[in-house]
């Protein structure tokens, strides 16, 4: 199940599936500020990339920067993944909507796209950042995410951005949102 929209010089695809299986230049991880691994998509990415090597790479980054604030992004190799790189970003924890959650979520997408561009990444895949444990209302998150991807692709930051949704209900919701926004 997937759908593609042409956006300026590139395209955006919305598809259902497991992000760890995608053969793209980079996949984005919905990480935490300590890059400590966890459940959800973060856990799946660690298992598929190889826990030991990915944890070591994350620990080295944290030794250098202390912690990764919400909205920021860093890059590691993809190790055993089909994707060559992993871009780790931290979405906001939903606290009711008055703690700059929309701005932080937008930054997570925009900074991931910018980092991808700096590393000549042409195709990249995103999970629904903050839409799991972090509790972001999905309809709102979809609007922010797709608008940010549209801006980034229009600017030529990457050639293709793929939004990967886990499960058919999420895929349908994001496809409806994409039909409005893209
Ligand atoms: N492929 C694509 N999407 C997935 C996959 C997968 N393999 N697995 C889960 N999802 P979450 P968050 C979807 O909770 O809300 C972690 O413990 C899932 O259905 O992974 O940003 C971190 O360490 C959901 O829609 O991320 C952090 O502590 C989406 O990915 C915290 O969770 C994001 O859900 C981050 O929470």
From TrEMBL:
Pfam families: Macro. It comes from the Bacteria. InterPro entries: Macro_dom, Macro_dom-like. Residues 1-182 form the Macro domain. Coiled coil: none annotated. This is O-acetyl-ADP-ribose deacetylase (Regulator of RNase III). The lineage of its organism: Bacteria, Pseudomonadati, Thermodesulfobacteriota, Desulfovibrionia, Desulfovibrionales.
